[in-house]
Amino acid sequence: MHASEAREGIILVADDSEANRELLSALLSAEGYQVVCAADGPQALDRVNSGLIDLALLDVVMPRPTGFEVCLAMKSKPETRLIPVVLFTSLNSDSDRITGIKCGADDFLNKPVNKQELLARVHSLLRLKQFTDELDNAETVLFSLALTIEAKDPYTEGHCDRLSKYSVALGEKLGLSEELRVALRRGGLVHDIGKLAVPEHILLKPGPLTPEERKIMEQHPIEGERICAPLRSFRHVLPIIRHHHEKWDGSGYPDGLKGEQIPLTARILQVTDIYDALTTDRPYRKALPSEEALSIMREEVGRGWWDGSLVDQLELLVRESGLQFADAGAKSER
User: CB within 10 Å: which end of the chain, N or C, has fewer?
Assistant: First the structure.
């Protein structure tokens, strides 16, 4: 293969045997891959933490940390857990493979290495990594678009980031799974992305909206769901986007859901959203102290607007952690 035909992908080869490193490096370099080597576990982790690795080929039996331990360390960190890992081993027991699976390994190869099997698995896993990177890029674009909405109004500065953090904090207090906490983090950032479809003269209107303008505004959760629907990783985020303006008594929008028909994650975002709006500066008043904000929210619970049990949990969270959810201005959402 000519240099002009170089394949994409930086591959880490970690093995304490110099002969094995040279063999694997020669096989992969001949196919046009870029190869970096490590002679032990600490070197392997240094290479991985550089942020440049697309695939890791790890010998199981290395001086500590072993290949198992390096794999586990990689899969335990958000920055590196999506890097595919192949474990090389001359061990053939089921217990070793089970250990590798528990550590998060994506594939296994036995020594001595079969060249064609090695290249086929490397090619397959690098394609998978490419798809994952493209997904990450799509999410980044969505997050950037969501922040452009916030940037239109100085009073919303930091609003999405705060909602993301505080929704996750309340989700943790309620014992939600990691999957749903990730959805809350993403939902806090993109919940209003549908406002991209709302004309600016409506979105930024300083006074009350007309009935026709309000009807357009109330379509933004549906538009937001439509924008994000193609991303399968957002399947738990979509209910947050669509239903964060529903109300406990069924008077919200867009679907008029009532009580526990409203997804729990959407209700969590609601109460943190209201609290954040009350405790940050608005064009017509300064931020309210926590106690006053919570008092207003309890009044609104009495009117049937919010889930009272979540407001209670939010109050406990604020008191336990001393959280004042914002130190910069944010304007209440319509």
Answer: N
Q: Are the C-beta atoms of 307 and 271 separated by less than 8 Å? A: yes
For 304-333, letters b (16+ CB in 10 Å) and e give ebbbbebbebbbebbeeeebebbeebbbeb
70 closest CA partner among 96, 46, 34, 97 = 46
Structural domain boundaries enclosing 308: 152-321
CB neighbourhood size of 262 (10 A)? 23
In this structure, are residues 256 and 228 in contact, taking their beta carbons and an 8 Å threshold? no
Whichever domain contains 242, its CATH number is 1.10.3210.10
SS (H, E, C) 287-305: CCCHHHHHHHHHHHHHCCC
Beta bridge partners of 264: none
Q: Residues 167, 169, 173, CA angle at the centre, nearest 5°?
A: 115
User: Under DSSP, is residue 227 helix (H, G, I), strand (E, B) or coil?
Assistant: helix
Residues ≥6 apart with Cβ < 8 Å to 260: none
**In this model, does residue 282 exceed pLDDT 80?**
no
pLDDT band at 90 (very low <50, low <70, confident <90, very high): confident
pLDDT tens string 37-73: 999 999 999 999 888 899 999 998 888 899 999 999 9
The answer to whether residue 334 is domain-embedded is: no
Among 73, 102, 132, give the residue marking a domain's end. 132
pLDDT at 100: 86
Find, among 108, 106, 70, 115, the residue nearest to 87 by Cα: 108
Q: How confident is the model at residue 325 (pLDDT cuts 50, 70, 90)?
A: very low
Claim to verify: residue 301 and residue 269 sit in the same structural domain? yes
CB atoms within 10 A of CB 213: 17
245 within some domain: yes
Indicate whether 142 belongs to any domain: no
- Cα dist from 227 to 28, 204, 224, 273, whole Å: 40, 21, 5, 21
Number of independent structural domains in the chain:
2
Is 217 within the bounds of a domain?
Answer: yes
